[in-house]
Structures are given as C-alpha cells and as structure tokens.
Design goal:
The complex is a heterotrimer of chains A (about 160), B (about 550) and C (about 80). With about 160 residues, chain A is an alpha/beta fold. Chain A contains 4 helices and 5 strands. In chain A, helix 3 runs parallel beside helix 4. The chains are: A alpha/beta (about 160), B mainly alpha (about 550), C mainly alpha (about 80).
C-alpha cells in the first residue's frame, strides 16, 4: 500500500480466535511504521453477566469466589492476547494501543471506532459453522450500518 | 451510589393492585371472576338458590300455620366469595405497602445509604409480585378453563399435561422479561431478592413435615442421591480423560452434572481452576438441560400417572439443576404441596452432598494436576455448608414439638376425637357391618379397638386408629366394614387451617422466587452450551434421568 | 456496553460477584487507579445476585423471615 494511503489509526478487533489471527495479519500488513497506530480492541462478551444463571443455593462468599475466579481467568486471557498483539506490532515498529471493552462485540467496536477516531477497522472472518467456540458473534449488519469509516474483513483461509 | 430510581412505577403498581382489591371487594369484578372460576361460581349460586328456596319454604310454612315468618338466616360465605375475599385482602396489604413506598420515592429525594438501598428493593419486588398475581389469579385459572373446554375435542387436557399453571407460566414470563423486554432499571435491585424468598420458602417448608414423613423421605433421598450423585460424578470423572477433556473441565462438569447444576459448578469452578470457556460450556449445558427438564419431567410424570412421592423422588434425583427441581415439582402438582415436599427433601440432600463433592473434587484435582494449589478442605466444608438448611431443620423440630401445627399432624391433617361432629358419627349401617366383622378379627387388641369403635361410634385415640387401619387391610373383610372403618378414620382427621395457611405462603414464596430466578436465565448463556461438556453432560444427564425413572417406577411406592 | 479510555462511562467490573470491588481485570490492564479510588469511597453494597453483602446474611435473613411468617400466621390464625 502506498505510504500516502496508510491508515493513521487502525482499529483491530482481536480476541484470540483463528479468525482474529487472520485479522491481525491483515492489519499488520496494512500498517506503516511511524505512520499507523494500531488500536487493539479486546471485547469480553457480556453474556458473562448471566453466567451464574439461577444458582440460588450458594452464599455470597461462594458467589464472590466464583466471580473473582472468572474475572481472573478472563483477565489472564485478555492480557495474554494483548501482550501477543503488542509484541507483534513492536517487532514491526508499529505503535500499539490496547483497549478493553465489555459488552456486545459490534456495539463495543462502534463505540471504540468513534472514540479513537479510527480511519480503518479490521476484523476477522465469521467463525465457520460447526467450529466450537463461545457464541458471541460480531453483528456485521449492525457494523456496516453504524460505522462511518471503511472496514475490512480478513478472508478465511 | 444512590440505588433508588425516582420512577412512578412502584406507585402505579401499588394503585393498580389496590384497585384490583377494590374491584373484588365491591363485586365489580364478579363477571370476570365468574368467568375465571366457573366451578366455584356455579357451586355458590346453587347454594344461594337452595338457601333462598329453604327460606321461602320456611316462610310459606309459617304463613300456612299462621305463625310469624322466621328470621332470615345469613348464608355462609361460599368458595367463590372466599376467592374474591382472599384476593382483596392480599391486594389491600401489598397494594397499600407499594403505594406508600412509591409515594415516598417520588416525594423524597433519596440520599446515599442503607435506607436508600433497602427502599430500592421494593420496585423490583412489586414487579415480580405483580407478575405472580397476574399469573396465579389470571392466567392459571384461564388456562385451566381452556384446557377443560378443549378436552372433548383434543381428547386430553392440554393445560394439565403441558403444565400450564402459575409456576411454569411465571418462570416463562420471567425468562421472556429478561431476554426480550429486559428488566427495567427501577426493578433491577429488587429482582435480586428472588433467592432470598426461595430460601425463605424452603425454611418455612420445615413446618409441614411430620417426623415420620421426614424419616422415610430422608432415608429414600440419601439412598437415591447417594447412588445417582456419586455415580454421575464418578462417571464424568471417568469419561472426561477418555475424550481428552482437561482436568479442570472434567472437574467442573462432574460437579455441575452430578450434584445440583449451576450452584455446584459455581462452587467447584475456583477449586478446580476451571477455564473461562469450560465454565461457559458447562453452565450453558446445565441451563439448557434444566429448562428442558422442567417442561418434560412433569409431562412425563402425568403421562405415567406418577404419585407425588414417585415424581418428587424422580425430579429430585434426575433434574440436573436444583432450581428447576422445585419448578418441576410445583409444575406437576401446583395446588398441593405434597410433591414439592418430597422434591425439596431430595434437593436438600443434594445440597448437603455439595460440600463433600467439592472437597472430593479438590483432592482429585490436586492429585492429578502438578502445581495445583492445595485447598484447605476444612475451610471448604465450612464455607460451602448451606446454613439455611439448619433453618429448615430448626423449623421442622419446632413444628414436630407442636409449636406451629397441631401435634402429630400428617399430610396437613391432624387427629382429634373431640372435634368429630355429630353428623360424622358412624351410622347404623356402618355399625352393623362392623358388628358382623367382629368375629373375623382375631387379635385381642384389634378386637378391643373395634368393639370400642362400635360402642362410641367414633375413634377415640390415634393408637386405636392405627390398629384399625391395619384391620381395614385384612383379607376377607367385607366392603361394608372396610368402608365403615374408612369413614371413622376420615371423620377423626381434620384439615388444619394453619397448615393450609403455611401451604399458601410457601406456594407464594416459591412462585415469587422461581419467577425471579426465571429472570436470571438468559438465552445468551444457554447458547454457550457446547463442546465436550455438551456431549458428556447430555449423556450423563440422560443416563441419570432415565436411570432414576426406572428405579423410582420399580422400587418407590406412595408410602407417605 | 462499557468501553475504557477516553470519555465514556467508567468501566465497571464484570459484576459477576464483587461487592463494589474494582475488578482486577480492569485494574491491571487500564491505569485508572485515581478515578477508581475516588469511586470506591462511595456507598456500594450487595452483589449482582443478592441484596445481601455478607456471606451468611441471606441464609440468616431467610431464617428470620420464615420465623416471622411462621409466628405471624400462628398468631393470626391460631393452631
């Protein structure tokens, strides 16, 4: 890509899946050292709010312990992913700013694009049907209607 | 932070409930109530017609004899009036409380602190309670009527078979609210009281058991739960490594599938260091199974014509998630509490097994996982012990000492010879049948008990009743004598008003709690069911449900 | 939905359990200690699932409520 067309702020949605890895590779190929800043958005999906379901037997101590445990797990997963992306960016001399959001992926991406003034958004391809994983998909329709900047979907290999 | 939302919602709910009370009290809602309760209405109307005819006959007779007309006697309130009065009383109490607090919320600017916190709970409670009112007073009788009306065409009563009663409808509406409409912000804090009221219901349930019932059910539940809980935990621990599931996934799944569903998975996750994705898969699987079982179990129970003990034992053992055990038991038998009583004993036994299973899993995980942190087993046992079960046992002890219910109550009835009414004494025909049966009763104490019954025309003591219950089952006794013994037994056992009141309270507490819990079951979390936990969980869940059904059908009889 | 950084609302913990405690997840990843310390002074209680803040309060509360109902009915109706 010509230097004149290099994005200044590239928003990368990445949370460690195979599709997200393809998005990261695409983002890194588009970024130009010294000109592009990659904002890495890591979304923790908000279905976790309902994850204690209808547990009614445990007391507050047990529920707190569970909450802290899940938060700890999500935290270490997020940190691991953010560190990995930051290292890959650093290896290419590209500035990287991690962002963490909690909510619905598309809503979080729209808000983050607005706030960080992104001029390009890169996401991974939808997970192929039948592949195991958490069910929290990016609403592409919502994204297409809500984003004011171009967005690219990395192709599935 | 300030928790109370300045919203007119609570005041509006309060006024609407008060208005319903007034409509019932004044008779304005009679048309609607007659449509909802056609049986009670018809019965009362027939009684009123009979009463009027008797009054008229008495007046005509007096006139013919030239005497002054007798004073008109007031008619006893009928069942229909009872329904309306009950609803009016409830509506006045709760509508009044909600209106006053609703006014307070609008009039006074809330300040941060405890008062604000506790006041913020009321709008949510009113929200759940108003759903419970609509469901119990409106939808439940409506579906019952439709079920009966459609029976001749369909050939089966869809409302009974599909369990479209207030418990199921409450849970379904709760789930619709959270997943489709969203819980309003002003109600958010109060919805969290659901667990508290459910636990209150379980503790209060302690007042309803007799010592004999608890002993029998306790023994059965320990055997059934012991076999099926330990069996399914063991099965998952065995299957997990064989399909290359990680130790933490196997650990959290075995607790969830084996013991009491979501609650057990929540308790065990930190102990076995479960990964976030394992937790999501497991809890999704359990919630999916729980919701399905709550609808399928009662329907199967009705189709197989199961009794309360059989169904309670089956649901209490076979349903993965403990919240849905209570739901299924009430769905199966919404008006009596008999099935709930059985199922809750199983639930409590499961809960008591939970700390032991968590300790077992902790030890299992530490042994298999190098570098796993050792857990203080004693601390786990104390921390996981369900204290509310002690409350249940406390109320049971007070109750069996005769504190709340009449001493020696059994299934909501109590024995009293002195309260037997004149018209319930044995008739000549009964006495003749018993006299004829006397020579056949060989045992001297049985014979003496029968002679006493013939002499007194009624039962005197509970021991005498027990002896004659045995006699009634004797072979060779003719039907007349058996009927007479049955009549004597029925006459001596009376319905206890206080037990009926406790049953009502318990039904409301469970309806409230389960509707509130329904509001915490999100489709987004159910959708996470997947991966290996879905496969293992479904296989073990199915084995447990079918296995416990077979055991219950083969070995459990209606003994209480 | 909550997003950290910039001017959007302060990110809350995941609200899975904590009693108004700041989630470690957010504490470590983002540097908002100052704002957090300010917010922690505020009155917060209960957990996402219970109105009670203390470990055993819900159980003990249920026992007290059940006793109140049991004795209330006893006084009102009699045995």
């Amino acid at each position: 890509m010509a230097t004149g067309l290099a994005p200044r702020t590239l928003l990368l949605a990445h949370h460690g899946t195979a599709g997200a890895e393809q998005a990261a590779a695409l983002a890194l190929s588009l970024a130009v050292p010294g000109q592009t800043r990659i904002v890495h958005l890591y979304v923790v999906p908000d279905f976790w709010n309902g994850m204690q379901g209808d547990d009614w037997l445990n007391n507050a101590w047990t529920r707190d312990a569970f909450g802290r445990h899940v938060e700890g797990q999500l935290q270490s997963e997020a940190q691991e992913q953010m560190k990995a992306v930051a290292e890959r960016c650093a290896a290419q001399g590209i500035e990287c700013a991690p962002r963490l959001a909690y909510g619905k992926p598309a809503e979080c991406l729209l808000a983050a694009a607005r706030e960080c003034d992104a001029d390009l958004v890169v996401i991974g391809p939808p997970r192929p049907k039948g592949t195991p994983g958490l069910r929290s998909r990016m609403d592409l329709d919502q994204l297409a209607r809500g984003l004011g900047v171009p967005f690219m979907v990395a192709t599935a290999r | 932070m300030v928790y109370t939302h300045r919203s007119p919602a609570l005041l509006i709910i309060g006024i609407v409930i008060l208005a319903w009370g007034w409509l019932n009290q004044s008779g304005t809602a009679d048309g609607l109530q007659a449509w909802l309760h056609p049986g009670a209405y018809k019965e009362q109307k027939q009684d009123a017609d009979k009463h009027q005819a008797a009054e008229k006959a008495a007046a005509d007779k007096a006139a013919a004899e030239g005497k002054p007309a007798p004073e008109a006697k007031a008619m006893k309130p009928g069942k229909f009036d009872g329904v309306k009065q009950g609803q009016a009383n409830f509506a006045y109490i709760f509508g009044g409380i909600f209106s006053v607090i609703g006014l307070l919320i609008l009039a006074v600017r809330p300040k941060e602190g405890h008062l604000d916190y506790y006041i913020s709970i009321f709008p949510g409670m009113a929200f759940i309670l108003s759903i419970a009112f609509v469901v119990r007073w409106g939808l439940d009788p409506m579906f019952a009527n439709w079920g009966k009306a459609a029976q001749p065409t369909l050939g089966w009563n869809f409302a009974t078979i599909l369990n479209l009663n207030y418990v199921v409808l409450g849970i379904v509406i709760g789930m619709i609210v959270v997943n489709v409409l969203r819980i309003p912000a002003w109600a958010g804090n109060g919805v969290r009281t659901a667990r508290f009221f459910l636990k209150t219901g379980v503790v209060l349930l302690g007042t309803l058991y007799s010592a004999a019932e608890l002993a029998q059910l306790g023994a059965l539940s320990v055997v059934m739960i012991g076999v099926f809980v330990l069996g399914s935990v063991w099965l998952v621990l065995l299957a997990g490594p064989r399909i290359n599931a990680t130790n933490s996934m196997t650990g959290v799944l075995s607790a969830g599938v084996g013991v009491c569903g979501v609650s057990a998975a929540v308790a065990a996750s930190p102990v076995v260091n479960a990964k976030a994705v394992d937790i999501a898969f497991t809890l999704g699987t359990i919630l999916l199974w729980g919701v399905l079982c709550m609808f399928i179990f009662p329907t199967v129970g009705h189709l197989l014509d199961m009794g309360p003990v059989q169904f309670g034992a089956w649901a209490g053992t076979g349903i993965l998630n403990s919240a849905q055990v209570a739901g299924a038991a009430l769905a199966f038998d919404p008006n009596g509490i008999q099935t709930l009583k059985v199922a809750e004993i199983f639930n409590i036994t499961r809960v008591l097994f939970l700390p032991l299973i968590v300790v077992w899993l902790a030890a299992w995980y530490v042994k298999r996982e190098a570098g796993a942190q050792k857990v203080d087993l004693g601390k786990v046992l104390v921390a996981k012990f369900p204290v509310f079960v002690l409350g249940f046992i406390g109320l049971f002890i007070l109750s069996s000492m005769g504190m709340f219910a009449p001493a020696g109550h059994y299934q909501g009835k109590y024995f009293s010879s002195t309260e037997i009414k004149e018209d319930k004494l044995l008739k000549e025909k009964d006495l003749a049948a018993l006299q004829a049966a006397l020579p056949k009763v060989a045992k001297p104490e049985d014979n003496k008990a029968l002679q006493d019954l013939i002499a007194n025309k009624k039962l005197d003591t509970r021991d005498q009743d027990n002896l004659l219950r045995g006699v009634a089952k004797m072979e060779g006794l003719d039907k007349g004598a058996k009927d007479a013994l049955g009549n004597a037994h029925k006459a001596a056992w009376h319905d206890s008003k206080i037990i009926r009141a406790y049953r009502d309270w318990i039904a409301w507490l469970f309806a409230f709690g389960l509707t509130g819990l329904g509001m915490q079951i999100t489709v987004a979390s159910i959708k996470q069911a997947g991966g290996k936990p879905l496969i293992i969980g479904s296989i073990v869940g199915l084995i447990k449900a079918l296995g416990s059904l077979v055991v219950v059908l083969l070995f459990v009889r209606e003994f209480v | 939905m909550r997003v950290n950084g910039g001017c959007p609302p302060l990110p809350r913990p995941l609200s899975l359990g904590g009693r108004g405690e700041r989630s470690e997840l957010l504490r470590n990843i983002i540097g908002l200690e100052n704002i957090m310390a300010e917010e922690e002074k505020k009155f917060e209680r209960g957990t996402q699932l219970s109105i009670f803040v203390s470990d055993r309060f819900e159980d003990v509360g249920a026992l007290i409520a059940a006793c109140l109902i049991a004795f209330g009915v006893l006084l009102y109706i009699g045995k």
